[in-house]
Amino acid sequence: MHTMWKGSISFGLVNIPIKLHAATEDKDIKFRSLHKKCHTPIKYQKICPSCEEEVNVDDIVKGYEVTKGKFIEIEEEELKQLEAEKGEKAVEIIDFIQLSEIDPIYFNRSYYMSPDGGGSKAYGLLRKALTESQKAGIAKIIIRSKEQLAVIRVFEETLLMETIHFPDEVRKASEVPNVPASNEVSKKEIDTAILLIDQLTTPFEPEKYQDEYRSKILELIEQKQNGQDLVTAKTVKPTEKMTDLMAALQASIDRSKPEKKVTKRKKTTKKTAEAK
Asked: What pLDDT, in 10s, does the model give residues 207-239?
């Protein structure tokens, strides 16, 4: 399993060197955008609309827009300095809570945690303590230049870290428009709905839920492939900025040569010729 982050986690005076591994993966089917005319994959470029030229990665800087068209430029070194001050590779558990106290709306992404460099005993200690206390730890971590709030809990004998949203990142439910009042249904309707819910209630078995739409797309792709329903992209010729390297060098040499002055020859007169 690929290691995406290395650092340490601490609670009190206990320090555990760890590695992070993505616990989930995106299995969406990826499509390329092709030019309908020749089936060549579309190329996306970063173009400056003012200079009307393509911009390379080295020519791009970060800017925060304070007013329309006015920006504060932030250097990468300034951001790295802030990360260093926070301790980029450190995860500190700041509180312990009951996991049931966190509403699922706060959860973001999940990461498995594995011990690193002799941290197995301390890793096992934290795992056992969380299991027996039935608690979860609240910690802060910086991942990809962003400070994240996280929950650390046990999942199938493995420490699991789940990043959660900060409170100001969760929009208020009270701002959702057109939500009906809770007193618009009768007692009979509620009882009937609860009866239906009870009839459909079952233990949660994640294996029985499948992405049927993705399966149908894969079947469609396989059918087309078996039927050789394939299109071929047109070969793209490399663009030449100069027709030839030697021609470019020769052009540079010719341009650097000093211009020759054209001198007018004196006309030879008859008298001058006889004098000679």
From this structure: 998 888 888 888 888 888 887 777 787 776 665
- 5-24+87-170 to CATH, choices 2.40.290.10, 3.90.180.10, 1.10.565.10, 2.40.128.20: 2.40.290.10
What's the average model confidence in pLDDT over 73-82? Answer: 84
Sequence spans of domains, the chain: 5-24+87-170
Question: pTM for this structure?
Answer: 0.69
Per-residue pLDDT tens for 169-216? Answer: 999 999 999 988 777 788 898 999 999 999 999 999 989 988 888 888
Q: Which residues contact 41 (CB under 8 A, 6 or more apart)?
A: 32, 33, 34, 35, 233
Nearest Cα neighbor of 126 from 117, 114, 142 is 114
C-alpha to C-alpha distance for 215 and 222, rounded to whole angstroms: 11
First vs last C-alpha separation in the chain: 101
